[in-house]
Description:
By secondary structure, the protein is an alpha+beta fold. It has helices at residues 8-23, 25-28, 31-37, 54-63; strands at 38-45, 51-53, 70-80, 83-93, 100-112, 115-126. The chain has one domain: Nuclear Transport Factor 2, Chain: A (Roll).
Amino acid sequence: MSEFHESPAEVCALFQALEAALLEPAVRRDREKVAALLAEDFLEFGSSGRVWTREQTLELLATEDYEPPAMEDFQCRMLAWDVALVTYKTVRIDAKTGERQCALRSSVWTRVNGGWRVRFHQGTRALG
Length: 128
């Protein structure tokens, strides 16, 4: 049974805004804002090859020196009325070398108490 009241375009726009917020330095440094978006059992497979828990992620982001990347090719797929998969690419240009650095990203979002929280995220280095 579908419990969506939003159109697919509205839902996809919401996820794009949530993912963009998680890329913004002001949000990333605000533990309460990030904690509100991460599920209690959040897990990340980082593009560095490390695995990050929710608590490790909250600690890291609070002190991170970070320049946000651009987001490209954003897509979302509803897997169930309360589960979504979003995929996109992030792109940074290295200020020193001008090299384009890309990562393919995916997140699994679940509806919790009427809101959305990310349960899993993966970043994979990619060719430009």
